[in-house]
Amino acid sequence: MRRPNGSQNRFLSGAAGLLALCLLFCSCQRGQEDAVVIWSDRAELASCVELFNATHDIKAVLVYKDSVSRSLPPARDEVPPDLVIGPWLKTSAVKKHFSPAEKFFSQNKLPKQIFYANMLAYGSSGGTQYLLPVSFNLPAVVFGEENAGYIKDSHILTLDQIWEADADFSREDDKGVYQKMGFAPSWDEDFLYFAAKAKGAAFAESESTFSYDRNALDSAVKYLQNWTLSNHTSSAAEQDFMFSYLYKPESEWLSEGRSLFTYMNSREFYTMKGDSDSGLSFRWVSTGRGIPVEDDMVCMGMYKRARNPNKAEVFIEWFFREDTQKAMMERSRDMALDTKEFGIAGGFSSIKNVNASLFPSFYHELLGNMPPEEQLVLPEVLPARFAIFKERIIIPFLVENCQAEQAEENKPVKEHKSLDGYIADWSRQAF
User: Fold this and answer.
1) What is the DSSP string of 235-296?
2) Dihedral sign, CA of 116, 211, 294, 387?
3) How far, in Å, CA of 86 to CA of 39, rounded?
């Protein structure tokens, strides 16, 4: 596989970010009881916390947690957080870990209308707001601008439109060997997962691992198999082409014109592109019902047993101001680190006007290209361990079952393990 799993590529701050994080932690460790303690898996927030500390008498300390959603409650000898910022926080247990955030709206400290309405609703449970949305990413296909003639829509593409563009672009030689191939589903595991969601697989939290729509998942598998058989003959042909031509960085092989698309999210695109005039463009990818927000949407919540709730409120109010987020983005740009950071905590802001007014000045392709609020579709409520479930259960199932080869007479069709079989195998190994 060209890109094994998106989670391995999305920790964008790298060594520089971790160094800043460690320095910040060490400098504030002694004063943790008085400081606002923030738990997060977003090393990009080290710069944000430094900015807060430089402008306030109240101080904050950022404590890195590889998985904040699975770190609650704190260990007995651990300093508890005041704030938690990260993905996978919206679970059935959200009320057990977080304090209500209603006071910010009732006291007009944070006007509700500054947020995307559906993202704000995502952070509520039983009619009470517990989480505040921070940032999000969107799925996209990226292509070289010289191939824009194959793209029929100027903003959004559906799966069917990507299929059609791939078919128009792909070419075999007289020996049946592909010299050009638009896009193959088997090249990218995250795309397989996106297609499954787009077809209604409806992965969601359940008591054991996760629930899903079996019929919709079967439909997605057949759709992806038919894509391969219709456009590229077989999965083997797709893999042969990938190993022959797609071994360079994506920005290079897209510009060479051998392939039309690569799949990635907004964070990955702007991290790859940086400030250069790369000759690359993108289109958001829609399910047909809207553009799905990536599962790992980042939220913020105040821990129920926070030691410094009043100070934490000061940080929250400061964080969600437009001028604060502008300063955060300017600081990230001006620091000129070796690794590029995207937006707010690695994504688009949950504040509508920040995306509409500020982001295009930092990312010029977004001018007139930010999807309207009604186009954004929020993820299902997912378990805290869903990133693990996706990597170890769902992706292996999709990789195996979406393989497609031309049927041969008298050759039996290979049976593949069901998703329930993968779940059962994982449960036996885990427990």
Assistant:
1) HHHHHHHHHHH--S-HHHHHHHTSBS-EEEEHHHHHHHHTTS--SEEEEEEE-SS-EEPPTT
2) positive
3) 8
CA distance 398 to 192: 7
Look at residue 391 and tell me whether its pLDDT is greater than 60.
Answer: yes
Does residue 137 surpass a pLDDT of 60?
yes
Tokens of 76: 């007995």
Average pLDDT of every residue of the chain: 88
**In this structure, are residues 280 and 145 in contact, taking their beta carbons and an 8 Å threshold?**
yes
pLDDT over 60 at 275, yes or no: no
Which pLDDT score is estimated for 411? 57
For residue 343, which of 357, 334, 355 has the smallest C-alpha distance?
355
Q: Token match 């797709």: residue? A: 238
E-strand stretches of 355-400: 376-377
Residue 350's nearest CA partner among 66, 24, 129 is 129
Kind of pairing, strands 128-129 and 139-144? unpaired
Say what the pTM is.
0.89
Rounded alpha-carbon distances, angstroms, from residue 409 to 14, 222, 228, 231: 52, 20, 20, 21
Query: What is the token pair recorded at 55?
Result: 């402008």
Closest-CA residue to 288 (of 417, 377, 389): 377
Structure tokens at 35: 């400081």
- Residue-level pLDDT at 431: 60
**175: exposed, middle or buried (C-beta count within 10 Å: 0-12, 13-18, 19+)?**
exposed
Phi, psi of 166 (to 5 degrees): -60, -45
Locate 225 and state its tokens: 């198999």
Task: Read off the pLDDT of each residue in 73-86 and give the average, rounded to a whole number.
Answer: 94
Tens digits of residue pLDDT in 61-73 = 999 999 999 999 9
Helix (H) or strand (E) holding 39: strand 36-40
- Helices (H), ranges, 42-84: 45-55
